[in-house]
Amino acid sequence: MNLPQTYKALELREYSENRNxxxxxxxxxxxxxKGEVLIRIHSASINPSDLMFLRGLYGIKKKLPxxxxxxxxxxxxxxxxxxxxxxxxxxxxxxxxxxxxDGVYAEYMITDAFSCLSIGSQLSLEQGACLYVNxxxxxxMVEQAQKYGAKALVQTAAASALGKMVVGIAAKKxxxxxxxxxxxxxxxxxxxxxxxxxxxxxxxNFERQLRVLSNELKATVCLDxxxxxxxTKVLLAMPYGSRCIVYGALSEKEIPLHAGMLIFQDKKxxxxxxxxxxxxxxxxxxWKLSGxxxxxxxxxxxxxxAAKFPLEKAVEAIEDYAANMTRGKVLIQPPFAExx
Length: 340
Ligand SMILES: NC(=O)c1ccc[n+]([C@@H]2O[C@H](COP(=O)([O-])OP(=O)(O)OC[C@H]3O[C@@H](n4cnc5c(N)ncnc54)[C@H](OP(=O)(O)O)[C@@H]3O)[C@@H](O)[C@H]2O)c1
Hints:
This protein has helices at 48-54, 83-88, 125-128, 133-147, 161-172, 184-192, 206-217, 229-237, 259-263, 274-277, 283-296, 314-323, and strands at 6-12, 22-28, 36-45, 71-79, 92-96, 108-112, 116-118, 152-155, 176-181, 197-200, 219-224, 243-246, 268-271, 305-310, 329-333. It contains twelve helices and 15 strands. The chain has two domains: 6-130 and 303-333, Medium-chain alcohol dehydrogenases, catalytic domain (Quinone Oxidoreductase, Chain A, domain 1), CATH 3.90.180.10; 144-275, 3-Layer(aba) Sandwich (Rossmann fold). The two termini are 14 Å apart. It is α/β, with parallel strands linked by helices. Helix 9 links the parallel strand 12 and strand 13. Bound molecules: NADP nicotinamide-adenine-dinucleotide phosphate (NAP). The site of NADP nicotinamide-adenine-dinucleotide phosphate has 25 residues, from helix 1, helix 4 and helix 5.
């Protein structure tokens, strides 16, 4: 394929809440290094991690100016060499941005070939844009809960895209899930995908309901994306020896810890981050996982897409997503998505 002289990208100039923090620019291509691939971006997703990154609050802070966005789909149009990169050439991929340098809110992105997953031609590139971060995290955490011997799970922010995936994966493994949400429309969204146990954390008897149900189902692991007081409330209500895996901080609040909970109830609190989990896995595990992702992509790992915005309107896309995250993912699409 003949590349254009330049390509469009959204460039972040400052980490802040400021609406003008990012602008659309023209960028020049740089030569590829061995092991890298050039991807023509089809669809880029917006996740809570992107919102935190733009504000400078995420676990990764890149040197500015930089193109933001961590997750996308596209076609590999060039390889810098290396067996896997060369294999990916011409293939549809789900991909993530490199730990350093430009991300996915652009017409093109360079990343490590091992940050790409070939998705075949059966899955749409729009679903492919959401097939990496949330699905792998959901699969990895449910597996971890099984390793801890949990018969059932509790999860907070359960109506999120990832929460719905946990419902699907756990059901396949025969694990029950107690889904904690905070709004009636989230209860309805979960009922619609067949979730059986749904509790609203705003209800006056929430803690009692959770105590009874988690003891009955032997739900001894919680997957928590909210943090703050909710984490403590949930862990306190769960059975003796339960464990909470905190993987998100949507409340942006600290978790108040009660020493007695740790000492007398043997409760445990730990974190999960995909960025540290993936490099710890063997190539065989990643290969097995990519098969699992493809097999579950159309049902258990399907993501609801709420809206699509052209790259020129990336700032509006980010605002639209942040205003209502339960509705579904918002995609940023360069002209490639319109067949141009
Ligand atoms: N650690 C990792 O490696 C990793 C990887 C992937 C994802 N994550 C985390 O997974 C979580 C879900 O991501 P996603 O992409 O699935 O999200 P999403 O689809 O955008 O949905 C976010 C959900 O969280 C709810 N929410 C927001 N603030 C909340 C709060 N303070 N209390 C309770 N609920 C709240 C939203 O509902 P409202 O309408 O009520 O706001 C919405 O239903 C995020 O925290 C993300 O950072 C972590």
